[in-house]
Design a protein that fits this description.
Radius of gyration: 28 Å
Strand content: 35-45%
CATH topology of the largest domain: Methylamine Dehydrogenase, Chain H
CATH class of the largest domain: Mainly Beta
Bound molecules: copper (II) ion
Mean pLDDT: 92
CATH superfamily of the largest domain: YVTN repeat-like/Quinoprotein amine dehydrogenase
Number of helices: 9
Number of strands: 46
Distance between the termini: 80 Å
Amino acid sequence: MKPSKMLLSLAGAGATVATLLYVPQGCTPHKSVAAGADAQAAEKVYVAPGKHDELYNFVSGGFSGQMSVYGIPSGRLLKVIPVFSVNPESGWGYSEETKPMLTTTHGFVPWDDSHHVQLSQTEGAQDGRWAFINGNNTPRVARIDLKTFRTAEILEIPNSAGNHSSPYLTENTEYLVAGTRFSVPMGEGQEVDVPISSYKKNFKGTLSFIKVRPEDGRMNVAFQILTPGVNFDLSRAGKRDSHGWFFFSCYNTEQAFNLLEVNASQKDKDFILAVNWKKAEEYLKAGKGKRLKSPHAHNVWDEKTHSGTSTIEEDVVQLDPRELPGLCYFIPCPKSPHGTDVDPSGEYIIGSGKLAAVIPVFSFRKMLAAIEKKDYEGEYDKIPVLKYEDVLHGEVQKPGLGPLHTEFDADGNAYTSFFVSSEIVKWNIKSLKVLDRVPTYYSIGHLSIPGGDTRKPYGKYMIAYNKITKDRYLPTGPELAQSAQLYDISGPKMKLLLDFPTIGEPHYAQSIPATLVEPNSVKAFKLEENKHPYATKGEKEARVERKGNQVHVYMTAIRSHLNPDIIEGVRLGDEVYFHVTNLEQDWDVPHGFAIKGAAENAELLIMPGETQTLKWKPKKVGVSPFYCTDFCSALHQEMQGYIRVSPAGSTVPVAFSGGQTQPAALQ
Ligand SMILES: [Cu+2]
């Protein structure tokens, strides 16, 4: 009996956790741990102190809205990269400079839900420049610069209601996509005030194609495709011969609007939508798109000013496939498809029906031939539906229960995750024969093979991202750490090597050899290139200036003091801006800045050569301490200062002191 099934059946019979732990015989979850990983496995994941891991693993944080970075094979957590949510560890969303990055047309959104990581590619291979990730709730996509491991750009997606099939990208990073998870009425004001029961008539979906500028990665919505009102789940771009096409899985082709759990599982087959984006480019060039007013925020980080800016882009161009032949085709796919994945050759498209008993494998060549013949099964909202048998390469029989996602090795094999039966199944793409299966602990969602979605899989490892970890780690109350599991796939049989806990819920993740990222890593920002308007590039420039009710503190931080460290002349009602420049030019010497009673935003973390700003509105008369929060030197505890706040209307003059800059007022 599989541990997961036993767990479910025992739990169903009302067994307590304690009962589970003390089951004496063979098939307890604990026994399976011993069977899965052994001393040889430990050797394979051991990275000696001082040695570096072989791969970076970029993992989505799910409900945390962040992306985290692990070393593989050790599973060591290296960094949490803040993206769509505020993050106190780095001041993301708290400092004045980072706030614009979380701005949307709905205002400042401090918390989102991030799902899928994509690493940039050149000619179908990972290039180590950028990682992309989607914000699911308030639809957005982000680009992370792998030189700094920082979010460099966030683009809001207009006319979208949940950005799930995103941000999958083409093999030269020409485009990344953002397909709406939910369909909604499109338009503004009264146009969208319609009864929900008018779903079939009024609800529409969109697929956004976001252009990525090759030289610097800058994103913009190049066009949107208006679609029938269905739900889009995941997507993958074609590669090699199928480059120029994109494949989106869709469910709820029933167009149900309530009780989806029942009403969206009525039909035997839903669809994979095949989009010819080269054709879309032709239509766009020929002026066939409609420009629609669609305000959306575009937030860009500037490494020279160490600041983000948020601008509102006003419109997008939409293409309507009902009027543009050759743009879109539906491929029937059994039972509510979740994943759609394209193999390294670009020929095979794998659909994964969540409720299907087989895995259908489609042939790109057969798809083109079927389109050529124009022998369709019919139309769905005026879009041609191809015949299942015409496009099918074959079906994998009895693979498991609840197929979700498929990745590939370099030897023509596919690995599919099965949520319901908690396992990964290895099968051959051409012969469709099942070759091996291993349990996961428990309820796997995505899986990832390094380079497994590219033309050139790195292979060697596979990582499972699991939803449940009952019994895998020390208990931590009702909420347990979620989990990733590392498998060795270098031999004919898959072998479990390691469990490691993750930050948030790990949805998708991708790994890349460290050699493609490590040499480019930035160590410090050059102080002479700091173009922040409030930068203080030397201690002699440190000062305090009043502008109306604003007090600007030009502060420097260097081991082991803040300058100025005494400030007077602030009055209740003032807004104090601490612009702190970290003067260090050395790797791994950030300084922090915290002040008592910073109710609106709290703290800063400032990298070497960088300037960041904390806004502070004092609420009380008196003296408040401030200090460095990052243990930077032997005299870190002494890295502190005081600011005096006088009553409104006080005549205490602005004065400051620190090192050589002691003013007359304080002598
Ligand atoms: Cu310090």
